[in-house]
């Protein structure tokens, strides 16, 4: 069986620790991948590359076709563009897929029935990064929505729902206020939805939709929404089902795919062997599925679930229900075992 | 004691029912107000006023200085501007104050300790309503943030916290992505915060902030944020503490104030005597406080709390813990009694 080259970014903060743990699990499970390290983030800035990327990185990435990425840090301040957003836009990763489910009773949650997949438009909206200072006192940011962008993400959501045996797709937007931009998204959802009569469909305003997601996540199945709303609600969905530390995500484009945890680089706990590799491991499982290595993916997923069931947790999840509170490395050992 | 003229909009959908119930309670409690009805919303559109307002309304409003408003409906479609937004902007109501607290054990909630006040900027952001179609395929909406707008709302939040014996103010924004717009809000918060050393202060990114609010509302006290974020998180805060049906809000400007429930006009249950007047009643209590009628405000608040404690609820809240499930009118009777 072919071994596939996969670009790997170890990232910043807790990134290197959780990436090392994740790669050890992948290797032990027999994933047929060949990690090709790329450098992006803090160390690259320090060398004077203000983009956060070295010039050769894009070639390596395009050669690989797939990137497994640990959290990276973009310096604060006006001069720096978010590396995450640059990656998503440069590589054309228009669909951000974020499954959030509860692992009750092994991970405490108030919402044991939750199992929702957020499908977030990943290139447009306020994330297009078009901001300007009009006067010293007035600043503006442009929210950009295109028909093509809406069609692509809405179709992706319906196809995803079908392929994964899901029953319902909910669109969230603020089309009662933003009648042109969110209105376009809403209209496209309704029009394309007509081609999927096998799937239940609904549209909700983002305010009450987010509130219902927070109180009744089990009533949602697949949610499709614009970039910024998706950013907010995926943290909500992940946190109420257990922890942002447990959710992975896929960033999908026509010719490239990037897989990452949904959490950040958590510099405050970096280097202490306490970070939870679960989110990145979930991302890696999604990556293996994307590469067609379904058996390895399932094997890792089952080993991870079994570890949770055994009550083995990193400190972020550990609690009264925990048999063993362990470090990042020891958690990986347990998954491998 | 002077009787103060208060403009009153009975609104659409469930509006007239909950307004009638609320005004009956105000009268029974001896509120020294004189309701001056204004017409705005559906019936006005039907007469051909495409703005949703009759020409004389603005004069009446400016004469009164205060508006108690039931939910109103803006027709769907590109031609109509939201009436709520028009009211807020025309009257200069820059601060939207939304207290959300739990009434456990009398109203079921997973978060019995929650007691948070959302202070939402109310005139700028994407709500400025500047949208345009660039091509048939590309639409844009302008997010507008001004230094003056940020200063005003941030200062309002700190002053509110002090005046109400609150301990902490949390600012939420996405300044890691929108470095100019949300960045300005963040900088203003930091700068003005320095003048309030007696108050604890923190800033969080809106994604994880909303998620934490959904899971740990009790860790928040006063939250200040931009318009759209405030729209979303106030529904989250209201819903997790019990119900959007129980939250009132104040829209405050330099020369005018408007008070309203945070929920919509719920046309599906209109005219059935089942709507909960609680949110509008809370708004009326805030209004009486604003008018300096603190004793009447407290009397109504206590009567309402006592009604909840007695297990008397409209059907939206009624459940196993309920002694009596009653209609809108009968709920008002119970509060009055
Ligand atoms: C780090 C940040 C740029 C990113 C985003 O806003 O998309 C993150 O919050 C996420 O959700 O992946
Ligand atoms: C009805 C709508 C215009 C309004 C808003 O978006 O502000 C509502 O959701 C609110 O929160 O008061």
UniProtKB/TrEMBL annotation, chains A, B:
All copies of domain Isopropylmalate dehydrogenase-like, residue ranges: 5-335
Cofactor: Mg(2+); Mn(2+)
Catalytic activity: D-threo-isocitrate + NADP(+) = 2-oxoglutarate + CO2 + NADPH
GO molecular function, one term: isocitrate dehydrogenase (NADP+) activity
Keywords assigned: Glyoxylate bypass, Magnesium, Manganese, Metal-binding, NADP, Oxidoreductase, Tricarboxylic acid cycle
Disulfide bond is among the record's keywords: no
Keyword Disulfide bond appears in the UniProt entry: no
Family: Belongs to the isocitrate and isopropylmalate dehydrogenases family.
Name recorded for this polypeptide: Isocitrate dehydrogenase [NADP]
Organism: Deinococcus navajonensis
Boundaries of the shown chain within the full protein: 17 to 353 of 497
